[in-house]
Amino acid sequence: xxxxxxxxxxxxxxxxxxxxxxxxxxxxxxxxxxxxxxxxxxxxxxxxxxxxxxxxxxxxxxxxxxxxxxxxxxxxxxxxxxxxxxxxxxxxxxxxxxxxxxxxxxxxxxxxxxxxxxxxxxxxxxxxxxxxxxxxxxxx
Amino acid sequence: xxxxxxxxxxxxxxxxxxxxxxxxxxxxxxxxxxxxxxxxxxxxxxxxxxxxxxxxxxxxxxxxxxxxxxxxxxxxxxxxxxxxxxxxxxxxxxxxxxxxxxxxxxxxxxxxxxxxxxxxxxxxxxxxxxxxxxxxxxxx
Amino acid sequence: xxxxxxxxxxxxxxxxxxxxxxxxxxxxxxxxxxxxxxxxxxxxxxxxxxxxxxxxxxxxxxxxxxxxxxxxxxxxxxxxxxxxxxxxxxxxxxxxxxxxxxxxxxxxxxxxxxxxxxxxxxxxxxxxxxxxxxxxxxxx
Amino acid sequence: xxxxxxxxxxxxxxxxxxxxxxxxxxxxxxxxxxxxxxxxxxxxxxxxxxxxxxxxxxxxxxxxxxxxxxxxxxxxxxxxxxxxxxxxxxxxxxxxxxxxxxxxxxxxxxxxxxxxxxxxxxxxxxxxxxxxxxxxxxxx
Amino acid sequence: xxxxxxxxxxxxxxxxxxxxxxxxxxxxxxxxxxxxxxxxxxxxxxxxxxxxxxxxxxxxxxxxxxxxxxxxxxxxxxxxxxxxxxxxxxxxxxxxxxxxxxxxxxxxxxxxxxxxxxxxxxxxxxxxxxxxxxxxxxxx
Amino acid sequence: xxxxxxxxxxxxxxxxxxxxxxxxxxxxxxxxxxxxxxxxxxxxxxxxxxxxxxxxxxxxxxxxxxxxxxxxxxxxxxxxxxxxxxxxxxxxxxxxxxxxxxxxxxxxxxxxxxxxxxxxxxxxxxxxxxxxxxxxxxxx
Lengths: 140, 140, 140, 140, 140, 140
Prior knowledge:
The first copy, chain A, contains 4 helices and 5 strands. By secondary structure, chain A is α+β, with helices and mostly antiparallel strands.
């Protein structure tokens, strides 16, 4: 029916604690750069995650990708791993990596990318709050 | 004032019933592939449609396209056709085409594309639910 | 800590088809009263349901009611019953009852009321669309 | 112009970490009752707070209460105290009190109640997530 | 089916300009009390209006009130009157009345109250912004 | 960690009055082209602005750009300038320029572009209402 690709999007959510800190820096520098996001005992967010998958719809199903399969994959790879966790303390992904929205989005992309057919392109959008969000990789 | 294009977006909504089914397949295969979306007596959605139109603003009006004209066009071509309908039973567009979000978005694109100045680029985004949505054609 | 009651709210969603029709009336009357909501092949909605439960928080847990328990109850009693169904054809609750938002809300209230501790007060809010919604019982 | 009261509402937001735990119980009981909300290293939320104030509008201003004054009061009493904090570790209010949504709403009510003219009635609504929220005191 | 009342809600929107000013006061007092809302050349809002109507559902229709009738009434009485208008300059309702959200809600209530069956109770909620809104009459 | 760019987004809001008018045209032409948006005494909107900045995250901070810095820049350059103003009468930017959403987005882009590191790409999205919005420059 078409020779152009379609993008499909699935939204999931998780709640996690984090703090921003660069362990190579002293406390004063961390406080100056990260402000209240550096407070020592963590704060947290309701993260909303939107995963975008691009491809040609299968003519038999009309699906680029079965949204139930995509939802289950996000739950298995992302939500189980990060929901109700402390990103800094409870996850190996952020042991040596500052859990900024940018870095969380890149980690999630990598977790999902290897599980999704490489013929399909992928992008993730992550809302830290309704007013702060990121996309990876950026469309330029 | 600028040599770069502007995108304008108009959001409209419609409510419709549908079921997912491939008439070339037997019942068991349809149930396996489409799950509860294959249930025989239909279910339904509040579809949110966002139409994006890209072009240079007219220096006399400051408009890429008059949003009232775009809104009226969407109502005439899409909302009148699909609102409060059963997509499988009541529309010629989905007589032989599975009404997945991907296919509905492509049908809507085709309905609008021929009515909008060809100098303007177009894209549609269709929300089946707040957590499942599609875009056509995908930006790659 | 307090002698005043607290209300807790849990939101769940389901997608269903329906049409409005009074089987005691002829077709012309049904079309006149219910307009496009009476179209014969059904249309559908993403219904958002908010269940409100009022009581004193348990001093040991700080909970009026465990939201996981409330969520599971709503899923078992309401979502399993109505999600991806045709309310007119697939459910015994609406065999002889017009599935207006008012009636759906009353049916849901009755389904949940008997399963929730009678010391707790209850109310349901049901969104048929973001612009049309109902509450039962009304606070007057 | 009227002899009936008007309610005014102001919405503010804060991001915090917490965990649910009853220090009188052993670990197994806490895990059983609070599930993943009991995980030891905390998780977090974007809390949305809506404060409702009820009274007669001042005929000179047309205000029940100046929303700028109400917003500043919420920021001073609630946002400064809880934003980017760990509710369990960083606040005296939840030292011996389980930070459930119910308890947070009651604490916020008490913090604001003493600062707002006693002729005005007050209620708070607190969203822990878009699907879980509470109101205090409940209207019964 | 029930002996309890049901509330039905209809949401509509309008866009208007206004400024807050008490013509009995001098400029300095107005600026002090109303701040930037007093700026002389007006500012504006996308107002969202939710009208609530409470009553017993008609057993023949399942409706408390036909939402199409309610929507048409709001458009005729409120939207036509205020949409794309300057509330201070273009409307007789706010000639001598400060267009605060409180006062706009009361005016809208009065415009609708006389047109709706007196057996039905009514309330209006008006959003000036997503963070500032009012209800009239308040439930106390 | 990556060789691909990340986009970060910050949302801010302002409330303003405007009317659409081309001073080179007579009244009848303006009324015909701009309809109720041309009404002489202005109307207004709650404008939501989303600024997108694209670049490589700094490996020391994990930030493409500090969102606090971006938020402060938007407030200083855009919100202070336009919030609670009449765009036609109170701003030099729209003295000879019709304040359509397209033109407002282009003006905001220019105000911010010169203040943000030229290595970073930029785009703005402006919501005039939840149903009408624009993006500049468009991705084509």
